[in-house]
Design brief:
This is Fibronectin type-III domain-containing protein. The protein is mainly beta and 1067 residues long. Helix content is 10%, strand content 37%. The chain starts with a strand and ends in a 41-residue tail after the last strand.
């Protein structure tokens, strides 16, 4: 495929005609073969887009023509492609050949032709042109001044930029004027332009050189510089322009303000040397200065030279003035700490390094006691004095630097507290639309003396009465009560009220409100204290809200459920609070969850409530258990029941049942049952008990109502402490009542067991209502022994009505025989008042017992109170004499054997170690009496039936054995001599022999003793009686009346029990 022409230049708005032909033989070999029949698939496209076929004409069976009558702008380069379309789909074709078309203009006029002569050395010219894609040839011709010699120079501005600069190749600076002609030609046409340039007025000098300071003072300097040497012969002269500003990093770019130099003071010392004096500068200040030049005829900005910049610093000097202060430039706190404030000198007034401030001597205003008071803290805006006395003071403040102090000083008068003017009131600060607004009210007192207010402000620090930058202030009239400050940074503000001679000092605004009428939500609310019935709420006010808050609305209520924080119906309480940031809520219910919110309110509106606080009050003692009652009573247990506490006031963890001084916890199913049962066991029969119940959470409730209960009768304890007293042939028997009677102790039953020769043992019983009775030791001839036992008996009367009086018991034949042995006339008078232990039961007691036909007898265990061997008492006295004689002979023989053994052992020589040489080798064997008296045999005590035994302390036995085995010596008062050990062993008989000897002696003494001596007849005695206590005792008689209840309660201790609880179901 071929496209003709292959390239073309077309003027904007002109016509375009292109021919495209195809070789079908080649087309038939393509991957998608085409033939003459596919001529309709031959197309043109512009920049990839198919051109409408209305612009295409078929010339023959292998060629087509594209004709566009008008090419619209803008200028540019376009590509027209001829190709074969695939499958008649739009924009899908195979490009085979193309033609490049440049759309443009005829040569256009050049504009803004100008030239610059750089430092009067070379000349560059520039012109502006339109963009044209039709290639154009440019031919430059020029000549200078009166010379007509034309210079030709080729330029090529076909880069399609809007301006073009070229350098004049044969420039001569001596020519004042140059004339330029530019011929332009392209395929569409031609053009010719002519320009004239004044090169002297187009000179751009180089910047000034070698700038330096020739004279320097604290407020002025003189600068000098020179121009490039080529410009020395430029006769038209030069115009200078310059600026200066303070230098250094203390100012941002936006704060730099350039001031123009006064060029009327410029001096031209030679053709190219200049000097300039700069006045009105600040001392010890760095400055930036910049100067540029141009020729007089140059009017374009671009013809100014570049700036030459230079820095210099003026000399230092002492400050010219003290810091500025106001009558109210002081602050006094409650501790009489005084803080002085002043306005810091600006940098331009500091005049030197190390700028600081000095407070001079501080004399008393009255001129007395002149002294120097040094501040505890001083910086660039304040001085602090701590704990000054309450007096008038005048403080003098001077500015200072490394050169010295200012000559003048500023004074601040701080009057004593009683002379100080009252503070302004209702001070509030607002931040509105990027501005600060301070409002206040007059002092409450001495308003007629008020002459002005002073508003102070400084950049904010952490505390609202501290500054992080310079202090500023402004005085306003007494009639003004608000002040607006346009300040971009955060500031702290204060106010003083002033009279003619005194001031209140500063009153700092502690908070800033963001809006004058808006009110926010409290963010810091917490519970500081809490108990079972009260809750202390505290909150902290944001500074942004403090100026407009009038009070607070506290709302609290118990919530519905732990997961439902809504108030219970009709439970919400609302309190309005003013003048404080805490509140004590009292009268709360223990262990109850409450929701609390606080909202601020102003004069015009109510703020949003705070985030709810949900807190549970502490646990408290529950209310007492209710309806304590007796369920059942036995002789060893009491079952009680009670209803749960009305209010638990916490987590109920147990009930405690108190029975007299004992207590029993109850834990089971505390939260499930309404009624509780408990069985108190192991109680004493027929005893009175006091029972209460308390409930527990973290502490106990008050006690429930008290119930008193008496257990049923039971079996009495065994009788203890039986004793007997001899009266000639009679013995008075006595015993104590049981420790725990278990009932009324209706009577005692004495059981007599008599052993006869042929009949064997025969038993008889008698009922007594006393604790004493007597018995005759003279036995009938047929008796061999008699054994008396006694027990206590309680009688439980039946509810069946009692019958008629019954007859007295008919005794058996054997009982009559027993009764016949009693001869009451021979009974000694001392015991005749007591009944006999044998015989018939008292008729009144017998009648009382027979009156109830269905009683229940509760009998205790028997206790032996008397035993007597009848045969021994009737033996001849010679038997006793014989026994004593045999005993004495035996002791004599034993003594002789021991003596011989000791004698034999004394002949044995014992060699002892050196450490034992002090032992007495000739010690004699102690006598039997010495052994007994020395304490080796101790604690000889009488047991039942007259038996004796020796209780020897185990430690003394061990000590004696060790001494005897080691052959060591001891004192004769404690053990036998070691050397005579063998002889001692012959006399060391068993304790039973000694007991036998002592028993014989004891029987002899008993026969000769007073008739009131004691004869031990008890079969088993739990307690042993020593010899020292064997003295007659008179036992008072005690009769047991058959009553069912004593005059006063018997209070018994409840023992520990194995508790268990029965619970009521669906009561």
């Amino acid at each position: 495929i071929d496209v003709l022409p292959s390239s073309a230049d077309i003027e904007v708005g002109g016509e375009l005609s292109l021919d495209c032909s195809i070789n079908w033989k080649v087309a038939s070999n393509l991957s998608q073969p085409y033939t003459e029949k596919d001529l309709d698939f031959l197309i043109f496209a512009e920049d990839g887009n198919e051109i409408n076929r209305k612009y295409i004409t078929i010339l023959n069976d292998s060629a087509i023509n594209l004709y566009i009558p008008k090419i619209s702008g803008p200028t540019g380069r376009k590509w027209y492609v001829c190709g074969i379309k695939k499958y008649k789909e739009k924009n899908i074709f195979t490009g085979i050949s193309y033609s490049t078309v440049n759309v443009g203009y005829k040569p256009q006029d050049l504009t803004n032709f100008r030239c610059i002569s750089y430092n009067w050395e070379k000349l560059n010219c520039t012109f502006d042109k339109k963009v044209n894609y039709v290639y154009t040839n440019y031919t430059l011709s020029y000549f200078g001044g009166a010379s007509r010699r034309v210079n030709i120079q080729t330029i090529n501005p076909n880069d399609n930029k809007t301006s073009y600069t070229f350098e004049v190749e044969k420039y001569l600076s001596s020519y004042d004027n140059y004339i330029f002609e530019i011929a332009m030609e392209n395929s569409l046409g031609t053009n010719l332009q002519k320009f004239e340039v004044s090169t002297y007025n187009s000179v751009k000098p180089n910047p000034p050189l070698k700038m330096n300071v020739t004279m320097r003072e604290s407020t002025r300097v003189t600068l000098a510089w020179e121009l490039h040497y080529i410009l020395h012969v430029f006769e038209r002269g030069f115009i200078h322009e310059g600026e200066y500003t303070r230098a250094g990093g203390r100012w941002s770019t936006s704060d730099i303000k350039w001031q123009s130099l006064d060029m009327t003071k410029l001096m031209n010392t030679s053709f190219s040397n200049y000097s300039l004096r700069i006045d009105g500068l600040y001392a010890h200040m760095w400055y930036d200065v910049r100067i540029r030049v141009r020729v007089p005829g140059a009017t374009r900005e671009e013809l100014w030279s570049n700036y030459t910049s230079f820095q210099f610093q003026t000399h230092a000097k002492i400050p010219d003035r003290p810091p500025r202060v106001d009558i109210g430039s002081f602050y006094v706190n409650d501790h009489n700490d005084v803080v002085l404030y002043w306005e810091q000198l600006p940098l331009e007034d500091q005049n030197g390094n190390n700028s600081h401030y000095v407070v001079k001597d501080v004399p008393d205003v009255r001129g007395k006691n002149r002294s120097v008071i040094k501040p505890t803290e001083i910086n660039t805006i304040m001085a602090r004095y701590v704990n000054l006395p309450n007096a008038d003071f005048i403080f003098t403040i001077h500015s200072a630097n490394s050169e010295g102090e200012s000559i003048r000083g500023s004074t601040i008068y701080v009057p004593a507290k009683e002379k100080r003017f009252p503070l302004p009131t209702e001070l509030k600060k607002f931040s509105i639309n990027g501005k600060y607004k301070l409002t206040w009210a007059p002092p409450k007192e001495r308003q007629d003396e008020l002459v002005s207010y002073t508003v102070f402000w400084c950049e904010s620090k952490t505390n609202p009465n501290e500054c992080d930058g310079p202090m500023s202030f402004e005085t306003v009239d007494a009639s003004v009560h608000e002040y607006e400050l346009d300040y971009s940074k955060a500031v702290n503000m204060a106010l003083s009220a002033n009279s003619r001679y005194s001031s209140s000092g500063l009153l700092w605004s502690m908070c800033t409100a963001s809006k004058s009428d808006g009110i926010g939500k409290l963010n810091m609310v917490w519970v500081s204290k809490m108990d079972a019935t009260y809750m202390e709420i505290q909150w902290r006010l944001e500074c942004s809200d403090a100026p407009i808050v009038q009070g607070y609305q506290l709302t609290y209520c118990p919530i519905t459920a732990p997961k439902n924080s809504t108030c219970k119906p009709n439970s919400e309480v609302v309190k309005n609070i003013t003048g404080t940031t805490q509140y004590n809520i009292t009268g709360l219910t223990p262990y109850t969850t409450y929701m609390t919110t606080i909202a601020m309110f102003s004069k015009t509106r109510m703020g949003s409530p705070s985030v709810p606080l949900v807190n549970t009050t502490f646990e408290a003692p529950p209310t007492p258990p209710r309806n304590l009652r007796i369920v059942s009573v036995t002789n060893t247990s009491v079952t009680i029941s009670w209803d749960r506490s009305e209010r638990a006031n916490g987590v109920l963890n147990r009930y405690t049942v108190w029975c007299n001084s004992s207590n029993f916890p109850v834990y089971n199913n505390l939260n499930e049952n309404e009624t509780f049962y408990y069985k108190i066991e192991n109680l004493q029969a027929h005893s009175y008990y006091e029972i209460i119940v308390v409930a527990w959470t973290t502490s106990s409730s008050n006690k429930s109502e008290i119930i008193h209960v008496q257990t049923e009768m039971g079996v009495p304890d065994q009788i203890t402490s039986p004793q007997n007293y001899k009266y000639d042939d009679y013995v008075l028997l006595s015993w104590d009542p049981p420790r725990h009677p278990g009932g009324n102790l209706d009577y005692y039953e004495v059981y007599a067991k008599v052993t006869e020769g042929k009949r064997g043992a025969v038993g008889f019983s008698k009922k007594l209502n006393t604790t004493k009775c007597w018995v005759n030791r003279s036995c009938p001839k047929s008796w061999t022994e008699i054994d008396l036992q006694v027990r206590a008996v309680n009688v439980v009367r039946s509810p069946i009505p009692q019958g008629k009086d019954s007859n007295i018991t008919e005794y058996s034949e054997s009982e009559y025989i027993l009764l016949d042995t009693i001869d009451t006339g021979a009974v000694p008078l001392d015991i005749r008042e007591y009944p006999s232990c044998l015989g018939r039961t008292d008729s009144h007691l017998e009648k009382w017992l027979k009156a109830d036909r269905h009683p229940t007898y509760l009998s205790g265990d028997y206790t032996s109170i008397f035993y007597y061997a009848c045969g021994l008492s009737q033996s001849s006295p010679l038997i006793y004499i014989f026994i004593i004689f045999v005993g004495l002979v035996g002791m004599a023989v034993l003594t002789m054997i021991l003596y011989r053994k000791c004698k034999t052992m004394s002949d044995i020589k014992v060699v002892l170690p050196d450490a034992l040489n002090d032992i007495n080798k000739d010690s004699k064997c102690p006598k039997i009496g010495e052994i007994i008296e020395s304490g080796v045999l101790r604690n000889v005590q009488i047991h039942h039936r007259g038996e004796t035994r020796v209780q020897q302390d185990e430690q003394e036995r061990s000590l004696l054995r060790n001494h005897m085995e080691s052959s060591s010596s001891s004192t004769t008062s404690s053990t036998a001599n070691v050397d005579n050990q063998s002889q001692c062993e012959s006399h060391d008989g068993p304790p039973e022999e000694l007991d036998s000897m002592e028993e014989q002696n004891h029987h002899i003494e008993m026969e000769e003793s007073d008739k009131h001596s004691i004869e031990s007849q008890q079969e088993e005695m739990p307690n042993e009686v020593s010899f020292d206590s064997l003295q007659p005792q008179k036992v008072e008689d005690k009769k047991i009346c058959p009553t069912t209840e004593p005059q006063t309660h018997q209070v018994a201790l409840c023992p520990g029990v194995n508790q268990y609880v029965h619970f009521a179901r669906d009561m």
